[in-house]
Design brief:
- With 120 residues, the chain is an alpha+beta fold.
- It has 2 helices and 2 strands.
- The longest helix is centred in the middle third of the chain and has 59 residues, at 36-94.
- The protein starts with 9 loop residues before the first strand and ends in a 14-residue tail after the last helix.
Length: 120
């Protein structure tokens, strides 16, 4: 006969007579002890559950730390982009032809049109 994986309970039926011709049914259950395999399976399940819970918490903490690092890096990139934009604007202001002509006049330099060649 094949062994069933379901727990078996042994019921002992006892009849006691209360009053004239009335009987009362009393069920007594006796528990079957857990086998070594069932205990090992339960222990394995508990250990695996604890490991998975620890893994989930660890992964969550790692994701939070990575998100924080990413936020700091993005902030640094934005700051550097703003600096580059400011420097490009400053370069544009310093290299305007009117400013260069003013500095040349202050230094006593003049523009000789005969020395200028246009290249196409």
């Amino acid at each position: 006969m094949a062994d069933s994986s379901a727990r078996r309970y042994d019921f002992a039926y006892e009849q006691s007579y209360v009053n004239d011709n009335q009987s009362e049914l009393v069920l007594s259950t006796s528990k079957v002890k857990y086998s070594l395999f069932e205990k090992a399976l339960l222990a394995t399940g508990v250990v695996v559950s604890l490991l998975l819970a620890t893994l989930c918490i660890s992964t969550s903490n790692l994701a939070t730390a990575t998100q924080s690092d990413l936020s700091e890096i993005q902030q640094a990139i934005t700051t550097n982009q703003n600096k580059v934009t400011d420097l490009n604007q400053r370069i544009g202001e310093l290299t305007t032809s009117s400013r260069l002509a003013k500095i040349a006049r202050e230094q006593g330099l003049s523009l000789n049109e005969s020395n200028i060649r246009t290249i196409r």
